[in-house]
TrEMBL record:
<keyword id="KW-0812">Transmembrane</keyword>
<feature type="transmembrane region" description="Helical">
    <location>
        <begin position="51"/>
        <end position="71"/>
    </location>
</feature>
<dbReference type="InterPro" id="IPR020846">
    <property type="entry name" value="MFS_dom"/>
</dbReference>
<feature type="transmembrane region" description="Helical">
    <location>
        <begin position="142"/>
        <end position="163"/>
    </location>
</feature>
<keyword id="KW-0472">Membrane</keyword>
<feature type="transmembrane region" description="Helical">
    <location>
        <begin position="107"/>
        <end position="130"/>
    </location>
</feature>
<keyword id="KW-1133">Transmembrane helix</keyword>
<feature type="transmembrane region" description="Helical">
    <location>
        <begin position="225"/>
        <end position="249"/>
    </location>
</feature>
<dbReference type="InterPro" id="IPR050327">
    <property type="entry name" value="Proton-linked_MCT"/>
</dbReference>
<feature type="transmembrane region" description="Helical">
    <location>
        <begin position="83"/>
        <end position="101"/>
    </location>
</feature>
<feature type="transmembrane region" description="Helical">
    <location>
        <begin position="175"/>
        <end position="194"/>
    </location>
</feature>
<dbReference type="InterPro" id="IPR026355">
    <property type="entry name" value="Oxa/Form_antiport"/>
</dbReference>
<feature type="transmembrane region" description="Helical">
    <location>
        <begin position="300"/>
        <end position="319"/>
    </location>
</feature>
<protein>
    <submittedName>
        <fullName>Oxalate/formate MFS antiporter</fullName>
    </submittedName>
</protein>
<dbReference type="GO" id="GO:0019531">
    <property type="term" value="F:oxalate transmembrane transporter activity"/>
</dbReference>
<feature type="transmembrane region" description="Helical">
    <location>
        <begin position="261"/>
        <end position="280"/>
    </location>
</feature>
<dbReference type="InterPro" id="IPR011701">
    <property type="entry name" value="MFS"/>
</dbReference>
Length: 448
C-alpha cells in the first residue's frame, strides 16, 4: 500500500511547491556525493597506513558502485510502494554508517563491508531523488533531473578542501567518521520534506517525444531500444568512473599531482585544484545538457556530449603532463561526462512512462555497475602497457562509439517506438485495437 496520504496527494500544487521538491532532492544528493567523489582523497592515505595494494583498495570503490547500481531496481520497487520520504531517510542512515564503518576498518574485508553499506545508502538517495524529479517535472524533465543529479556531481566541491584538511590534520579515520555522521544526519532531516505528485498535477512536454503508455518493467526490458540505451550507458559512464576513481593516481603517474597551478590569482596544487573544478563542471553539465535536451532532443544532445568527452579523454592522454592542461582537460572530461545521468534517466521516462520509472530506470542504471567492474581493469591495463594513454584511448573509443550510436541507432529506434505507441493509442481510442493499450495521464507528443 502506498504510504502517500490521499489528501496531500490530491491537493493542487504551485510551481513553488514543485521546485521545493527539487531543492530538497539536491540537498540530499549533495550530502551523499562524497562517498563517490571524495574517495580518491582517501586511497593514498589508506595505502600508506595499511600497506594494502592500490588495486585491492580500489576494489572497495568497485563494490560501492556495483551495490549502488545493482540494487536500484529493488529500491525502485520500494520507492513506488512507500514513497520517497521513507527510502531517502533509510538511505541517509546507511550513507552515514558507511563512512563510520570505514573509519574503523582495519582489514580489507571491513573496508569492503563499509563500501557495500555506502552503496545501499547512496543508491536509495540517488534513485529516489532522480525518480521524484522525473515525476514532478515531465515538461522540464531534462532540467529537473539534471539539477538533481547535479547536486550529486558538484556536491563534493563544497567539502573537498575540508576533507583534505582533516585528513592531513587528524587522519583519514577522523575524516571518515565526522563527515559520515554529518552527511547522514543532513539526508535524514531533508527526507522529511519529500513526497510524490499525482499524475493530474503535472503536464507533459510539447517539445520532446514522450510516450502516453506506462510500460511495466517486463515490457520495457523486452524492447530493443532499452538494451541500446543500456549498452550506450556502459560505453559513456566507464571513462568518467575511471577518472573519478583514478584521477589522483593518474595525476601522480603523470607527474603533476603536486605541481602548482595559478588561475585568476589562485594558486593550488594541480590535483586538489582539478578535483574542485571537476566537481563543479560535473555538476554544471547535468542541468546544462538536461536543459538543452529539453529543447533540441535527447539524442542530439547525447551526440554532442559524448563526442566532447571522447575528445577530452584523448587530449588528456596527449597533454596531461602539463599541469595547466591537466586541469583544463580533466574539467572538460567531467563537463561532458556528468550529463549521462540526466540524459539517460530522462530518455527512459520519455520512452517508457513514469508509473514504473523507478524500477525501469533502476535496471537501466545497473549499466553503471557493469562499467564499475571495468575500473580495476584500468590499473591492470596500465601496468601491462606502462602508460595511461592506452587506458584513456580505450575509454575514448567507447565514448565516440556511443556518440555515433545516439544519432545512427537510438534516434531512429525511438522515432519508430513513439510512432508505434501513438498508433496503438489512436486505435485504442477508436475502439479498433486488437487489445487495450494502457495509457498514462501524462500525454506527450511524437514529434521527435
Amino acid at each position: 500500500m502506498n504510504s502517500q496520504p490521499a489528501a496531500e496527494s490530491a491537493a493542487p500544487v504551485t510551481d513553488a511547491v514543485r521546485w521545493t521538491q527539487i531543492v530538497v532532492g539536491i540537498v540530499c544528493m549533495v550530502a551523499a556525493a562524497n562517498i563517490q567523489y571524495a574517495w580518491t582523497l582517501f586511497v593514498p592515505e589508506i595505502q600508506a597506513t595499511h600497506g594494502w595494494t592500490r588495486a585491492s583498495i580500489q576494489t572497495a570503490f568497485t563494490i560501492f558502485v556495483v551495490v549502488q547500481t545493482w540494487l536500484t531496481p529493488i529500491e525502485g520497487y520500494f520507492i513506488d510502494k512507500y514513497g520517497p520520504k521513507v527510502i531517502v531517510a533509510a538511505g541517509g542512515f546507511f550513507t552515514g554508517l558507511s563512512w563510520i564503518v570505514d573509519s574503523y576498518a582495519g582489514t580489507l574485508a571491513m573496508l569492503y563491508v563499509g563500501s557495500a553499506i555506502g552503496g545501499i545508502g547512496v543508491g536509495c538517495v540517488y534513485a529516489t531523488c532522480v525518480n521524484n524529479a522525473l515525476k514532478w517535472f515531465p515538461e522540464k524533465r531534462g532540467l529537473a533531473v539534471g539539477l538533481t543529479a547535479g547536486g550529486y556531481g558538484a556536491g563534493s566541491a563544497l567539502t573537498i578542501l575540508p576533507i583534505s584538511a582533516m585528513i592531513h590534520s587528524s587522519g583519514y579515520q577522523s575524516a571518515f567518521f565526522w563527515f559520515g555522521l554529518v552527511q547522514g544526519a543532513i539526508i535524514i532531516c531533508a527526507a522529511l520534506f519529500l513526497r510524490m505528485p499525482q499524475k493530474e498535477q503535472v503536464k507533459a512536454s510539447t517539445k520532446v517525444a514522450q510516450t502516453r503508455r506506462d510500460y511495466t518493467l517486463g515490457e520495457a526490458v523486452r524492447t530493443p531500444v532499452f538494451w541500446v540505451m543500456w549498452a550506450m550507458f556502459i560505453g559513456t559512464v566507464t571513462g568518467g568512473l575511471m577518472a573519478v576513481a583514478q584521477l589522483g593516481v593518474i595525476a601522480h603517474d603523470l607527474g603533476v599531482k603536486e605541481a602548482p597551478v595559478s588561475v585568476f590569482g589562485l594558486t593550488m596544487a594541480a590535483l586538489p585544484f582539478a578535483l574542485m573544478l571537476d566537481r563543479v563542471m560535473n555538476g554544471i553539465s547535468r542541468p546544462l545538457f538536461g536543459f538543452i535536451s529539453d529543447h533540441i532532443g535527447r539524442e542530439a544532445t547525447m551526440f554532442v556530449a559524448f563526442t566532447l568527452e571522447g575528445v577530452g579523454i584523448i587530449m588528456l592522454s596527449r597533454f596531461g603532463h602539463d599541469p595547466m592542461m591537466f586541469l583544463i582537460l580533466s574539467g572538460m572530461v567531467f563537463l561532458a561526462w556528468g550529463e549521462v545521468y540526466s540524459l539517460f534517466s530522462a530518455t527512459s521516462a520519455d520512452t517508457f512512462g513514469t508509473k514504473h520509472a523507478g524500477k525501469i530506470y533502476g535496471v537501466l542504471y545497473c549499466a553503471k555497475g557493469v562499467a564499475a567492474l571495468l575500473v580495476p581493469l584500468g590499473n591492470l591495463l596500465m601496468e601491462a602497457t606502462g602508460t595511461w594513454a592506452t587506458v584513456l584511448y580505450v575509454t575514448a573509443t567507447m565514448d565516440l562509439t556511443a556518440a555515433a550510436c545516439a544519432l545512427l541507432v537510438l534516434k531512429p529506434m525511438l522515432a519508430r517506438h513513439h510512432a508505434r505507441n501513438e498508433e496503438l493509442a489512436r486505435r485504442a481510442e477508436h475502439g479498433d485495437a486488437t487489445r487495450a493499450v494502457p495509457v498514462g495521464a501524462a500525454a506527450g507528443t511524437a514529434n521527435g
